[in-house]
Amino acid sequence: MRASFSSLSTKCVVRVVVRKDAGARRLTPPPARETGSALLVAGGREAEGYGLYSYLLLGAPPDSGARERYLKAIEAFWAVVPDIAALEQYVPRAELNVAYVPVKSAPGATVAAGWVLDSYDFARARSLLRYVPGAHRDGPYLLSVLNRRSQEETEARRRGAQDSSDLENRGSIRGAKVSSSG
C-alpha cells in the first residue's frame, strides 16, 4: 500500500539561532589535574606555578601501633603517585597537583617507606596542620591548598583536608598493594 503525498503538509520550518558569546566556547571540559609526588626537604620551599599543592602529613611520630599504618600509607603513596618531574615532561605545571612529603634531609639513591618515616619532618607537618580545625595528632592526612605554603596564611580558608588515619580499616590507597619494606 502506497502513501498518498497529497495528505502530507508541504510546509518546512527551519529555525536558526545566532548568538554572540562573551568569550570563546570550550568544546571539551578542561583536563583533570594530574598528581605527582616530590620530597619537600627542610629549609626548602615549594616550587612555583603548580595548579594545586598537596601534602602527605603525619600528625605526630608514630607509636608502635601507628608505625605500620604510616609505613603502609607512605608505601601506597609512592606506588600510586608518579614523580612530579616525569609528569612535567608532558603536562604544564599549572595543570599539575604537586604532592609533597616533608622530610628533614635529602635522600640517598633510593627512597623507601622506612627512610621516609625515619626522616619525616613532623615539625613542618604540624606547621601545615595547624590551619586545619582539630588536633590532628594521628594521620596520615592529605592537605591540599591552591597556593604554595608561603602564601598559606592568606589562603587559610581555601583548603581541604582528608583524614586517612583509619587507612588499615579501609584498605590501601586506590587498591595499590602495600608493603612496609624499607
Could you walk me through the main structural features you see in this protein, from its secondary elements to its overall organization?
It is a single chain. By secondary structure, the chain is α/β, with parallel strands linked by helices. It has one domain. It is 23% helix and 18% strand. The chain is built from five helices and five strands, in the order E-E-H-H-E-H-H-E-E-H. Helix 1 crosses helix 3. The radius of gyration is 25 Å and the shape is globular. The N and C termini lie far apart (82 Å).
Total beta-strand segments? 5
Describe the biggest sheet? 5 strands, mixed
Strand percentage, roughly?
15-25%
What class do helices, strands and sheet pairing give? alpha/beta
Provide the spatial order of strands within the biggest beta sheet: 1-3-2-4-5
Q: What is the gyration radius calculated from CA atoms?
A: 25 Å
Shape call: globular
Mean pLDDT: 77
Number of helices: 5
